[in-house]
Amino acid sequence: MGRARIRLALLATLAAPSFAFAHHSTSMFEAEKRVTVTGAVKDFQWTNPHAWIQVVVTGADGKAVDWSFECGSPNTLSRQGWKPSTLKTGDPITVIANPMKDGTNAGLMYTVTLADGRVLGPGAPTQPAASAR
Amino acid sequence: MSHATKAVRNLAVAASLAACAAAAAAQPLPKAADLPDWSGAWTRSTGQFYESTADQALAAPPPLDSPRRHPPYTPKFEQIYQDNLRRIAADRFPDPISICGTPAGWPRLLALPDAYEFAIRPEQTWILTENGPNTIRIYTDGRTHPAPEDLWATYTGNSVGRWENGELVFDTVGLKGVGSTILARTGLIMSDELKTTTRIRLLEPNRLLVTVVLTDREALTRPWPVAFTYARLPAGSTVYDYACAENNRNPVTSDGRTLTLDPSGQIIDKLE
Hints:
The complex is a heterodimer.
Chain A: E1 5-7, E2 35-45, E3 52-58, E4 64-70, H1 74-78, E5 92-99, E6 106-113, E7 119-120
Parallel strand pairs in A: 4-6
Antiparallel strand pairs in A: 1-2, 2-3, 2-5, 3-4, 5-6, 6-7
Chain B: H1 3-26, E1 42-46, H2 75-89, E2 115-121, E3 124-129, E4 134-139, E5 158-164, E6 167-173, E7 195-204, E8 207-215, E9 224-232
Parallel strand pairs in B: 4-5
Antiparallel strand pairs in B: 1-2, 1-9, 2-3, 3-4, 5-6, 6-7, 7-8, 8-9
């Protein structure tokens, strides 16, 4: 992977709130902003009530920084193409997320772009049967 | 409210419930083969807790400042609601389900993410929510609500009803109110005097319509209708376990603030 990078993308004009229904308040996240973070998967917690992606980002100064990304539940994620095996330690990924308001290195995942180019969403809403769309 | 007024209201509610119970008791049980097909897994496709009739169920949600989003609260509950709005603005509005210990309850369970199942038999229906999980049991075997002295407040209350031409109609009483449950994180609450009348039917083969009329003599000045629709998931969809406490990295403080933890359990928020 090339040098990992953090790109703060303040996509206010595009950023309709993307919050999936969390089991808790999402007031700690910036609904109107999105941050783009590229790094390597450190851990993928396929757990309830939320899956989490831990990403290691190596800055220009060579220092590694951990980011935490909150996702939907495994149930909703699985209905949108996610599997427990989707992410493996060391996989290069790019995450777009609503960042924490206080600047902490964490966010609410909006999309993840995998090394093969696939883009997976946050796990909500679930897609209904075709005849009910 | 005077004791006399309260007594009259109690009598009116009792008479209404007795009439419903009588209707339920008079209704013969349908044959299982005559019940509609609500099998499979479902997901909510429209609706939240804003005023809505069956005719409005599929329409776009009202704007955030629409009066349809503001229940007709009594002065006492308007004050509680306004206080809730202030707490939300300050990020100090605790949601009981965030502690991973209590269910969403009725009727909030109608507005959850993830999958739903509607299991129906002539004598009973179960609504099962993947998120939570939550279960509400609706008895259609002709029984009536328990006598007031035998009824205590629970998260899903006591529901009895009947089938009317493929539509499930039921009344729910004995619900927990403000202090134990909320309707939505938008600050909406009801009291433990809440009673609901719910109708569920298929709008089309893969879409269910649920309408609920909320009546609450402590919280509301008039009945307040809400509506939801649910879309059937593709055949073969699986409904999964949901264990909120499995890896809850968002504990809530006693003053209602939601925190975020790192994988080792350390708080990563920058606390003031």
